[in-house]
Amino acid sequence: MSSFFHGGRTSEQATAIKAPASTTAGLPVVFGTAPLHLASDPAAVNRPVLCSSLSEAVAALGYSSDWEKFTLCEVMYSEFQLFNVSPVVFVNVLDTSKHKKTVSEQVVKIEDKVGKITDPVILSTLVVKTAASSGTTLKAGTDYEAAYDDDGNTVITALENGGMTSLSNVYCDFDAVDPSKVTADDIIGGVDRDGRNTGLEVLEDVFPTLRLVPGVVAAPGWSDNVEVAAVMKAKASSINEVFAAGAVLIDAPTDTLTKYTDVPAWKENNSITGIDEVLYWPMAKVGSKVFHMSTLAIGAIGVTDAANNDVPHKSPSNVAMSITGLCLKDGTEVIMTLPKARYLNENGIGTAINFIGGWKLWGNRTCAYPSNTDVKDAFISSRRMFRWYSQRFIQTFWSNVDDDINKRFIQLITDSANIDLNGLTALGYLLGGRIEFEADFNPTTNLLDGKVKFHTYLGVCVPAEDIENVLEVDPSYLQTLFTA
Asked: For 196, left (φ over 0), alpha (ψ -120 to 50), or beta?
């Protein structure tokens, strides 16, 4: 194109300030087992499934009230029914092609032309016969129909003029889902022979597939296994080599730890001392339903973040929970007094109390406390703010990777980040913050090697964990006795 021009014109230049990226601070990524055989549109096993409603989760993963066998259903109920928060990323490790058992010639009684199988039948494998080994095989759609009821049972209904109408019993062969075959190794996962991530390794797949960074990692029903807890901590601390989740929720076992005084020793003996780990004891009840405390903590974190524009500056402690009591795994009631809760809290363990204002989640400290008292590591809210701001910074300036290192590049990042930090401060999410480009952090050898380092100072808000009012008699007020 010729450089000659005659007339008036305009052009555009990229804005010198970058808007901060939006992040989902408390996005839960939950690992466990789901009744995939009940799903209308089953999701792939060991894949992150983003759900924003109970109906969406049920369609992709199925639903069962047997939470001990199908642990993801507990989280579905809590998130979408008790707390009404979303979204949630579920990772189901139960593979119906592998975690199953074969049942042969189960006798099913037929009453009013209907029979029922209570085992979790995989419908595609069901064979219905008129008698045992020598019986005639009945035909689905001609002799009978088979479908799941609302409780996950398989209902076999005789069709008019079919070969089942006069039978009082039928004999059924089928494969049934067997959740007992899922082990801690399935939750821990790894890489399968096709090179695909399984179990907790699927954390690596969340951002590439969903463009969302994990904020909370949990595995209710499994995290009380110390091996699972250790891998959760390791994987959550380095996601895609650049991100880290702000909270790894762990449940202390309530079958072996039946006294609150036993929990701190278990925590220390099993190295549940990570800066991002948050440990809870015991379990909780809502009527007859029993929940892991980590499940309820996911909801409390979600409610708190939602009330604060998705900025995790506020502690989830003292947040209301719609529970009716605390218990052990076998249902034994646990009475949690304030001194007992304080003992757990001062050892870096969260719980719940019913003291003033109903049931509340109770505890501000990460598992790093009390051995680590650094404010950025010891408080849940501080830890989550550091992780959240790191995610925000990385996503905002990722497009500037490989730009030329010059003054304009440095100014773009420092100006944009300082404007963002000032905004967070003005909104009350930080006490203050600034970013600097310091010579001490950037020796010439590093700059020549393409390495640039900035230094950000964050004034995080610390929860008012201990509020004390000192009362004193002031004798001067006796003088009021002599005034008119």
From this structure: beta
